[in-house]
Specification:
The complex is a heterodimer of chains A (about 375) and B (about 650).
Chain A: H1 2-21, H2 31-64, H3 83-112, E1 119-126, E2 129-134, E3 140-142, E4 145-148, E5 153-159, E6 164-168, E7 173-177, E8 183-187, E9 193-198, E10 211-217, H4 219-228, H5 256-273, H6 278-288, E11 298-299, E12 304-305, H7 312-320, H8 323-329, H9 333-342, H10 361-364, H11 367-380
Chain B: H1 2-15, H2 21-24, H3 28-52, H4 61-80, H5 84-91, H6 118-147, H7 157-191, H8 200-219, H9 245-273, H10 286-318, H11 335-352, H12 355-369, H13 376-390, H14 408-433, H15 442-465, H16 467-473, H17 477-507, H18 513-539, H19 554-584, E1 615-617, E2 632-634, H20 648-655
Antiparallel strand pairs in B: 1-2
Helix pairs in contact in B: 3-4, 4-8, 6-7, 6-8, 6-19, 7-8, 7-9, 7-17, 8-9, 9-10, 10-11, 10-12, 10-13, 12-14, 12-15, 12-17, 13-14, 14-15, 15-17, 15-18, 17-18, 18-19
The chains are: A alpha+beta (about 375), B mainly alpha (about 650).
């Protein structure tokens, strides 16, 4: 018995520090993450000795009590139980569990405490893109998430189709976005940097590609970025911001002013080019807005640079002129585009797979939206 | 007049031209005929309804398929002969209640027919389940090929989603749950001294329902749009908007579920009413206790997954909008309700997949340590405690689902409390090992491997109960690691242990212990190398169910894939050992492990009706080391002991050598 106790103490003394120095977590970028990392350390310290105990008893028994050659023992001693021992191994884990549950509860309370200074950010998710909007700034919409350092944030999560999730590993917080209800997640960013926001709830074929960049920046930088964000010409969903011009992010050389100038000039250039026709302008709004086309497709005129689906600047006309496409999707460009939107799997362009593009646009878009989208795409396709 | 009569007679005889006997007798020919009839029925009923409703076109491929998925397997079941007795009884044809023509197997062909012998059904169940283990394992290999490197190369994202969905579904519903039913089917009636299960015909029906579910799930790969790709959880509204393949899951689960429910009812009635004289509840082997507890869980919980999938079926096939959040004002479906109903089954299902394994481990550890189970009553009570607590924790799968936040707190507490009865079991097994005489052969190695690996899975389970930590790791590879430590390191190790342990009893042959040990060490080492690192990449933030992942996880994923391939190959050692030993292994004695429970007191394999004399139970099942103790005695009216090993007196002598 004594050997077991000594072995468990020594084993735990070796294994606990080993498990603690493993770099389990990604960078600690929120107040919540800090508390969760500590909770995990406590869980390791509390549970490693139990594992060491089981391992030691099994190992010791295999070594000490195994049937050896020329063994004269037939059966072990008929021990049927020991009430005192059984009470101990019921009560001790119970005490341990009460302690852990209480501690976890306090962590949860602190992590989800509402803060009066909190800023609300709406997160709208759809297959397979994120969209962030800032009610403080007149619901300006952005495909990338910018957050000021140190300010508590309340995320309001919504979904437009199936269940999605919003997870930033460095924040240690996640929550599902559920169609029909609004869910609430609280995070206080505490570290500058660029992190990924990921969808972690299986949402269809493009699930693994559903990501968005998150930037935690100095509050002043954030305010300037927010001010520079165009209210009525939102940057398209899913557009990854160019790496070199990330304002306030450590390591990025360029200033905010140039980034703001860049985005506003992009906005103005696109607004001039869309004044060609009313239907086309409406179609552009559909493209960059609610339908989420720009999350997956590149289209220079709309400022979209998604890479999940075919690049419309390069592929639209060429693919629609393929003989097979003309046979299946219709000979004219507008017929082809219309079929590609409402029945995307009828013809799969070379190099792409079916199942990624949502096949529900025929239902979710009104006929007039579809029509304006088709005429817009036909007008800008090179 | 005369001519009229002479005309009528040939007409009547022509209508009575009998079908060929092969098509009338129960069997595969009639089953094939009935499948065609079922397909025709599905075709006809959908066409009729669509014609009456003025829906065009009248013939719709997906409508016919959806109805056929339900109807054709049922027609097959009738055709193969599962329902002949009941149909005869219902229509007033003569029946023979004591008909034993379908009882027992004389040739290998009898395993491919409807059979009412629990031993044949047990082997049918076990072999069928292992077929699906290899199918599921192959799918796992495809998953690991895809994930070996970041950047899609092997499967499209859609195919990948399909492959992991079928992998999980097949292994949960077609392997882990039924293989335990199979092992218990063989062993349990023998253990309690019963000649068969309480309802042998129902038992046959429950077996034949199982391959129906499995075939449907595998056939989903042939469906237009690919197999079902919404995970084994099939969360609505993703599942309700999926292509036709989803219906193969939705309907297939119903067949597997009914199979489970019928078997569980059968076990409950058998255990309650068919115990041998003297077999009080507290003299039952713990495997019987474990299956009693499991059957309670199955009977209460399985209807919930059935209903959740019926909702999905109605939503997708008939537009019921149970889970459609955007129907319109006042008519909105409730998306979260699916998860509550689904997990109200699927959490207890975790224990359905674990408690029978606890029973197997108790048998093996007691016999192979030559000691009584430490704290027998607490072992039995902790099983019942797990049954009750198992129903109070379902929403811990939903800590990040967006449900009302307060529900998380009681669920965290109950989830953590389940660790206490589970801990009692682990510590009691350890105490059973202590000072025993350990026979470290293959079944015992798997049992000890289970003890250590399941402890790890249990520890990560307690960690997951802690809401803040769960919020970080849920839906990541940490969950994948946890579930595989519990279901592979837990359930599958107990299944391997049980198959090796009862192999001599089931087949009458001994397996090759050296190959068995090789199988154990390969499995144990590469299991840990495969699933251990998933804890780390999960906490670092790699989401599960993705065909594509960030570059920083590349090295670990390559390592995991490599380990997984060797883990996959290690099962070939098992397969070779089983097949060769079954055909050419040395003959097994009636009681090669010197076990005390009743199944070891009959020949290997047991006689068709199990016991030539009804046993009387006079003591506990694990009285190892107690001088002169026996579990059961066989009343022999006149003759002296018949065969060596078939009576408990011989067992006692052997033990005292």
């Amino acid at each position: 018995m004594l050997q077991i106790v000594v072995a468990v103490v020594i084993g735990s003394a070796i294994l606990i520090p080993l498990t603690l120095i493993v770099p389990w977590f990604p960078a600690k970028a929120s107040a919540q993450a800090g508390r969760i990392h500590t909770l995990y350390d406590v869980l390791l310290i509390a549970t490693v000795p139990i594992f060491v105990l089981v391992l030691t008893v099994v190992g010791y028994s295999m070594w000490k009590f195994r049937l050896k050659p020329n063994d004269t023992r037939v059966d072990g001693p008929p021990i049927h139980g020991n009430t005192r021992l059984e009470v101990v191994w019921t009560a001790l884990p119970a005490v341990l569990i009460i302690g852990l549950v209480t501690y976890a509860y306090t962590v949860l309370r602190s992590n989800e405490a509402s803060k009066p200074t909190a800023m609300t950010v709406n997160v709208t998710e759809r297959q397979f893109a994120f969209e962030f909007s800032y009610p403080e700034a007149g619901n300006k919409v952005s495909p990338t998430l910018y957050l000021p350092l140190g300010r508590p944030v309340v995320f309001k999560l919504r979904s437009l189709d199936v269940i999605h999730s919003f997870f930033v590993p460095e924040f240690s917080e996640k929550l599902d976005a559920v169609p029909g209800i609004t869910t609430t997640l609280r995070v206080t960013p505490t570290r500058l940097g660029r992190y990924p926001a990921e969808c972690t709830e299986l949402c269809g074929a493009g699930h693994g590609l559903m990501r968005a960049p998150v930037y935690v920046v100095e509050p002043s930088v954030f305010q300037r970025w927010l001010a520079a964000l165009k209210a009525n010409a939102p940057p398209p969903i899913g557009t990854p911001a160019p790496k070199a011009v990330q304002p306030g992010v450590p390591g990025s050389g360029k200033s905010v002013a140039s980034a703001a100038a860049g985005s506003s000039s992009a906005g103005s250039s696109s607004s001039t080019s869309t004044s060609a026709g009313g239907a086309a302008a409406a179609g552009k709004a559909v493209f960059t807005g609610a339908s989420g086309c720009s999350g997956c497709h590149t289209l220079a005129d709309a400022g979209a640079s998604g890479t999940v689906g075919p690049n419309l600047d390069v592929r639209l006309r060429t693919d629609c002129s393929m003989p097979a496409s003309k046979r299946i999707r219709g000979a004219t460009l507008t017929r082809c585009i219309h079929t590609a939107i409402v029945n995307p799997y009828a013809y799969i362009p070379n190099g792409y797979t079916k199942g990624v593009m949502p096949s529900t646009f025929g239902k979710t878009l009104t006929p007039s939206q579809t029509q304006s989208l088709v005429s817009y795409l036909a007008s800008v396709a090179k | 007049m005369a001519t009229a009569v002479s005309e009528a007679v040939p007409v009547r005889t022509r209508t009575r031209v009998p079908l060929p006997p092969k098509l009338r007798a129960p069997g595969w020919y009639r089953a094939a005929l009935f499948e065609v009839l079922g397909l025709g029925f599905a075709f006809g009923i959908t066409a009729l309804i669509r014609w009456l409703q003025h829906i065009h076109p009248i013939v719709s491929g997906s409508a016919v398929t959806t109805v056929a998925l339900i109807v054709v397997p049922l027609f097959f079941i009738v055709g193969i002969g599962c329902c002949d007795y009941w149909v005869y009884w219902a229509i007033g044809r003569p029946t023979r209640p004591e008909d034993h023509s379908t009882h027992g197997a004389r040739t290998w062909r009898d395993y491919f027919r409807v059979n009412t012998d629990h031993k044949v059904i047990g082997i049918q169940y076990t072999v069928t389940s292992f077929f699906f283990l290899f199918v599921g394992g192959l799918l796992a290999m495809l998953i690991r090929v895809q994930l070996a490197k970041p950047g899609m190369q092997f499967l499209t994202p859609e195919q990948y989603n399909g492959v992991f969905s079928v992998h999980a579904t097949v292994l949960i519903f077609l392997f882990v749950i039924p293989v335990f039913a199979g092992l218990a089917n063989f062993v349990l009636p023998l253990m309690i001294g019963a000649p068969d299960m309480a309802f042998p015909r129902l038992n046959a029906l429950s077996y034949w329902l199982l391959p129906m579910g499995g075939v449907l799930m595998l056939m989903s790969f042939l469906a237009p749009g690919g197999s079902f790709a919404s995970g084994w959880t099939a969360y609505a509204p993703l599942s309700t908007t999926m292509p036709l393949g989803q219906m193969f899951f939705t309907v297939g689960v119903q067949f597997a579920g009914f199979s489970s429910i019928f078997t569980a009812l059968n076990f409950l009635v058998t255990i309650i009413t068919m115990r041998a004289p003297g077999m009080s509840f507290f003299r039952m082997p713990l495997l019987v206790w474990a299956n009693f507890s499991t059957s309670l869980l199955v009977v209460i919980a399985t209807p919930f997954i059935a209903s959740s999938q019926f909702f999905v079926l109605l939503d997708r096939a008939l537009g019921f909008h149970f889970f459609d959040a955007f129907v319109g004002a006042g008519k909105n479906g409730n998306v979260l309700m699916y998860q509550h109903v689904f997990w109200f089954y699927s959490h207890p299902a975790v224990y359905i997949m674990m408690l029978p394994g606890f029973g197997i481990i108790s048998e093996i550890i007691a016999t192979k340590s030559r000691k009584p189970i430490f704290g027998y009553r607490m072992m039995a009570f902790s099983l019942l405690a797990i049954v009750i607590l198992g129903f109070t924790v379902w929403a811990h799968h939903m800590f990040v689902s967006g449900m009302s936040p307060w529900i998380r707190i009681p669920m965290m507490i109950t989830t953590a409390i389940i660790a206490i009865p589970t801990g009692i079991k682990i510590f009691s097994w350890l105490a059973t090992l202590w000072r025993g005489v350990l026979h470290l052969d293959t079944p015992m190695l798997f049992a000890l491997g289970f003890l250590t690996m399941f402890t790890l899975g249990g520890i990560s389970g307690v960690m997951l109960a802690m809401i803040p930590f769960d919020i970080h790791v849920s839906q990541t590879y940490f969950i994948v690691a946890h579930i595989h430590y519990v279901l592979f390191g837990g359930s599958l190790f107990t299944i391997f242990a049980g198959v090796y342990y009862w192999f001599p009893k089931m087949t009458g042959r001994m397996f090759d212990d050296r190959l068995g040990k090789l199988h154990f060490w390969l499995t144990f080492i590469f299991f840990n190398l495969t699933f251990g690192p998933m804890h780390l990449i999960g906490i670092q933030g790699m989401p599960r169910r993705v065909a594509e992942y960030a570059e920083k996880f590349a090295a670990w994923n390559l390592f995991i894939s490599f380990s997984a391939f060797i883990l996959g190959l290690s099962t070939l050692v098992f397969l070779y050992n089983m097949v060769v030993s079954w055909r050419r292994g040395p003959r097994a004695a009636a009681n090669p492990w010197r076990g005390m429970t009743l199944e070891w007191q009959v020949s290997s394999p047991p006689p068709v009706f199990n016991f030539d004399h009804v046993p009387t139970v006079v003591g506990g099942p694990y009285e190892y080391g107690v001088p002169g103790a026996v579990h059961g005695i066989f009343k022999k009216p006149e003759a002296p002991p018949v065969a060596a090993g078939s009576s408990s007196g011989v067992a006692t002598q052997e033990r005292q050598e």
